[in-house]
From TrEMBL:
GO annotation (BP), single: dGTP catabolic process
GO cellular component, one term: cytosol
Molecular function GO terms recorded: 8-oxo-7,8-dihydrodeoxyguanosine triphosphate pyrophosphatase activity
InterPro entries cross-referenced by the UniProt entry: NUDIX_hydrolase-like_dom_sf, NUDIX_hydrolase_dom
Domain Nudix hydrolase residues, every copy: 2-135
Protein name: ADP-ribose pyrophosphatase
Amino acid sequence: MTNHPCIGIGAIVFNSKNEILLGKRISSHGESSYAPAGGHLEFGATFEECAIREVLEATNLIIENPQFIAVTNDFFEKEQKHYVSIFLKAHCLNEHELQNLESHKVESWQWFALDNLPSNLFLSLKRLIEKKCHLYKEIIDEPNLSNFKYPDAYLCKTLAIRV
């Protein structure tokens, strides 16, 4: 284990149906869990540049206008790894061109409806959902989901029962 946390970037990518893209991990920490596209922040890169690059390298998808969502502080006890994970959200411009370009890291990529996410979510993604649900609890206590303009607010409303 390194004495310093690593910085990871996670991209919550939405398609035209407001579904999010998750990949089933087969390597490193979090094996068999579902995680968004992402990777390590490289020296000199912005969060947005990293998200765009990581999504393209892993999936062949082009995202536009990535926007900051939240930061999580994640300690993976079994693997003795510590990550500060920075999440951004973005919309995909070419969702039908999805490919698995990193099959040594990800078994497959799949679009998931926000109300039908897999139960085995990657630790950082779980923490993001818990954090966002807590922050938005009062704001999104609205029965009509069509009033929500932002996908992360919809995500929190949809998953509020799970937390």
